[in-house]
Fold this protein.
Amino acid sequence: MPGSSTMLSLFNNYRARRSRSTSKSRGGCKAGATFLVIAPYYQRLREQAGILRRQRVKSPTVTATRHSPTRIRSFEVEPLDIPLIEPFGISSGVQVVARNVLVTVELADGTRGYGEAAPFAPYNGETQAGALRALRQAHDWLPGRNARTWRALAGEFFRRGGRNCGAAQCAFETAVLDALKRHERVPLWRYFGGAGTTLETDMTVTTGSPAEAAAAARAIVGRGIRAIKMKIGGRRGPAHDLARIAAVLEVSPKAPLILDGNAAFSRAGARELAMGMKKLGIVPALLEQWLAKNDLDGARALAEETGWLVAADEGCCSARDARRIARKQAAQVINIKFMKAGIVAALDIARVARAHRLGLMIGGNIESILAMTVSAHFAAGLGGFRFGDLDTPLFMAENPFRGGYKLKGARISVAHIAAGHGVTPR
Ligand SMILES: [Mg+2]
């Protein structure tokens, strides 16, 4: 067939070309061997060739980073101490001053990004000193890197020590991402998904007496905030908490109540309080982490026995935790907080929670308007958050920042923010 003879001829031509090329290449190797005899001269040639090869391989990346406007020029870390209007108490301790950390990242084009760490020792043992230490190690390797690779940088920070301090991880990621998105003129709510720009927040009644709880509830209602979160589980026991809850409901009978035990209850204590509430006809909106963070069986039983929604907070710091909680049916809601492990971890947790049809809550530690605005961007942009707890800027006696979310009654909005998270030091 004419077709097959053409194919044969093409194949023979290919073999002939391949054979010529192979022998040329082998000849090249022989020539190289001849040069080896003149060792110093050849060594110099090799070095020069090596330098050229290195330049050929590396120069495009190096040049791109060196001249990129998003190259990180500097990284600064400093304490951020903000006095509170009144002590903020939870079951395991009280904070009088928010001892946080401010991180500033500056890009080659002069754009600055800011991040906040809000370590809260009564919550998980993290401290300002620990956050400062974890963040300062980045001085050695971060400058010169490109903010466009923020997720890879977040992973590197985590491996280099961020894993020991979730608040530091959050501050690092926030500052780098903020700088990048300000440079790109993209607001974070849009970056996180663009689902929306608003959400509703609750406000917290911290630990104290029933009279103090009633006074705090009156102030919350006066602000136009509907949902009330109460810190419970203190040393004075379930009967004291029951009296505080009743006092709050006397002020605001229809307030959706989020009762946060911060992992302080025993199973018996939890049952006692729940039964006391049932007797008074109290129906809370959410039981947030009443039991120890690893007591998943207890959390499941609490939800089953009461018929109320249970949220995991201290017990859910990673996507792995979220999967375990879903598997054990130990919660119906996950409280996502950037201070637990940063933004990347929060994105992972939200993805797992959605896949398992768990409800979402956004919360935080004792954070200024900076960190809380980042969380507002996240929850509004991602969408689908049923519970919002972004109230701690209202507890601060000073605001060292300009910008941030706008609050009208209980409604938070980030619609006005044009780039990054929109918060800048004064
Ligand atoms: Mg909590």
Notes: Residues 106 and 112 are 4 Å apart (CA to CA). The two ends are 85 Å apart (CA to CA). Residues 189-425 form a domain with the TIM Barrel fold (CATH 3.20.20.120). The first helix runs from residue 2 to 37.
